[in-house]
Amino acid sequence: MKEKAYAKINLALDVLSKRADGYHELATVMHSISLCDMVSLELSDTGRIEVTASDPAIPQGQENIACKAAKAFFDAAGIRPGARIEIEKCIPTGAGLGGGSADAAAVLRMLNRLFPDALSEEKLFQIGAALGADVPFCMGQRPCLAQGIGERLMPVPPLPGCAILLCKPDISVNTKEAYGLFDEQGQFGTHSAPAMCGALKSGDIQGVAQALFNAFQASIAQAYPEIERALYNIRCQPDVLDTVMTGSGSAVFALFEKRQSAQQAASRLCEAGYWTFVAEPV
């Protein structure tokens, strides 16, 4: 089987509090975009789970989250086949775009189709939540307000027609480090998610752009000036509606009403040394 694993962006991201168990309570509006990895899965009779990826920078084999997803599924279902998983990476790592979570979610979806009676939907999402906060969202790939640590999902209206310019400076941000920086410098308890939900409901791309927010951005951009420079360079582009960091960084994205404007901006930023991609909402 073969499936696309779509990247995600955070249109709004609030960190509400830090829990006693060390996790953080979040409220974030997430949306899938057309940038994607391609994940292939083939069952085998070896009893082993093998994972290879086109990007040598990400873990291969047992340390890859896609391998952990397959193992968790087989353990929960009480079955012992092997599997070969190949990941053609297009989503950059350490960018806040959910590439690893999307790969794991794709594996869970494919295994669920191969063994449709093995696990309930509730159990499948429990496995996803245990793997990572973004995995439950990536399993459904539909616009959602995610709460808790990401496991409580409520569908929201999709983005109105627009182009999404992705821009990543030549750095990566570790998620654990990002939370540490936020705990030291960030602002808990912001409430941007309700405003974003309202803007999406109205179908107004200008209102969506005005509601963009990421609670991580201030602390991460202070620690990584390259991110602040990327945001500044995007704001200088013609026809940009607004820009914000996604997830815990390091990628940022901007909304444009016209794809041509986004492509022109992407070309200029690429010449300046940034990785860029023009995506569409999924």
Main features:
282 residues, Alpha-Beta Plaits, alpha+beta, four-stranded antiparallel beta sheet, Ribosomal Protein S5, domain 2, 2 domains, 10 helices, globular, seven-stranded mixed beta sheet
Give the helix/strand layout:
Blueprint: E1 2-18, E2 24-44, E3 49-53, H1 65-77, E4 82-88, H2 99-114, H3 121-131, H4 135-140, E5 144-148, E6 152-155, E7 163-168, H5 175-185, H6 193-202, H7 205-211, E8 213-214, H8 217-223, H9 225-235, E9 240-245, E10 252-256, H10 259-271, E11 275-279
Helix pairs in contact: 1-2, 1-3, 5-8, 6-7, 8-9
Work out the number of β strands.
11
Average pLDDT over all residues: 95
State the helicity in percent bands. 25-40%
**What is the third-level CATH name, the topology of the largest domain?**
Ribosomal Protein S5, domain 2
Structural class call reads alpha+beta
**How much beta, percentage-wise?**
25-35%
Task: Give the second-level CATH assignment, the architecture of the largest domain.
Answer: 2-Layer Sandwich
Q: Return the domain count.
A: 2
Continuous helix count: 10
Distance between the termini: 21 Å
CA radius of gyration is 19 Å
CATH class of the largest domain: Alpha Beta
Main sheet makeup: 7 strands, mixed
Contiguous low-pLDDT stretches (5 residues minimum) are none
In sequence order, what are the helices and strands, one letter per element? EEEHEHHHEEEHHHEHHEEHE
Overall 3D form: globular
Write up what this structure looks like.
The chain is of the alpha+beta class. It has 2 domains: 154 residues, Ribosomal Protein S5, domain 2 (2-Layer Sandwich); 117 residues, GHMP kinase, C-terminal domain (Alpha-Beta Plaits, 2-Layer Sandwich), CATH 3.30.70. 37% of the residues lie in helices and 29% in strands. Strands 1, 2, 3, 4, 5, 6 and 8 form a 7-stranded mixed beta sheet that branches. Strands 9-10-7-11 form a 4-stranded antiparallel beta sheet, sandwiched between helices. Strand 3, helix 1 and strand 4 form a beta-alpha-beta unit. Helix 1 packs parallel to helix 2, helix 1 packs antiparallel against helix 3 and helix 5 crosses helix 8. The longest helix is centred in the middle third of the chain and has 16 residues. It is globular, with a radius of gyration of 19 Å. The mean pLDDT is 95.
